[in-house]
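The record is passed on directly below:
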Amino acid sequence: MSTRYIQKLKRNWNKLASGDALWAILSDPTKKHNKWKLDEFFKTGEKEISNVFQELESLGLKVKFGKCLDFGCGVGRLTQVLAKSFNESIGLDISEKMIELARNYNSRDNCKFFVNEDENLSLFSDGYFDFIYSSITFQHIYPTYALAYLRACLKKLTIGGVMVFQIATKEKANLRSYFRNTFPYLLKAHRLMKEMVCANLSNKIEMYFINPEDIEQVVKEEKSEIINRIDNEMSKVVSSQFFVKRL
C-alpha cells in the first residue's frame, strides 16, 4: 500500500478533525461551521445502530455480542453505541486527531480507540471480532486501498461472524460521472497532477465509488457470503449497505 497516499489521507483527516470534526463525519449542510450539538450528533448513532440490528434480526443473522470493531470510527459516534451491546467495542481511525477526540468523548470502560493505518489491521489477530461495522468510511478511500481494508476486516472476523458496511457504489449521471466513465485515465491523470500540486494544502472530503462486482469478489475470496445488500439512492450517489457473514 502506498505510504504517500496513506500519509496524505491521514494528513487530510487530521486537518478536517481540527477544523470541524463532527461536520466532516456527518456533512449536514445546516450543521457546517461547528453547528452540531454534541448530544444531537451522538443520538444519530443510536438510531443508526438500532436500524442495523433490526435488519440483522429480519435476515435471521445471529450476532455474538463478544468483540466488535467500528472501522473508521471518527469521534466514536457509533463505537460507544455498540459498546452498550458488546463486551468489547473497538474504534479504529487513521486520524490521530479523531482518535484524540473519541477518547475525550468516551464514557464507557469497554470502549477503546486506536489509530490505524496498516492495511492488514495487524493490531488484531485473524478471527478476533464477532461483529464489524463500517459506515461512511470506505467511500472516502481510493478503491484499491478501500478493497484492501475490506479484505483485512473480513480476515479479522471469527467464523460465523458478521460484518455490515456501507460503500458508495454508483455516481448518478452528471458531467463529472460522464467524464469519469468515458475518460477514466484522463480523470486519473488530472487527479494525480492535482495531488502533486496540492498535497500539502488539501482538506477536501474525497468521494470514491466501488463496483459491486469488485466487492463481491473480495467477499468471496475471503470465504464470506453477502446475505443482503440495500441500495439507497441519494441526491448524487447510490449508497449500498452490505450484510456479510464469514463462512
User: Anything to note?
Assistant: Residues 194-201 have pLDDT under 50 and may be disordered. The chain has eight helices and seven strands. The domain at 3-246 is CATH 3.40.50.150 (Rossmann fold).
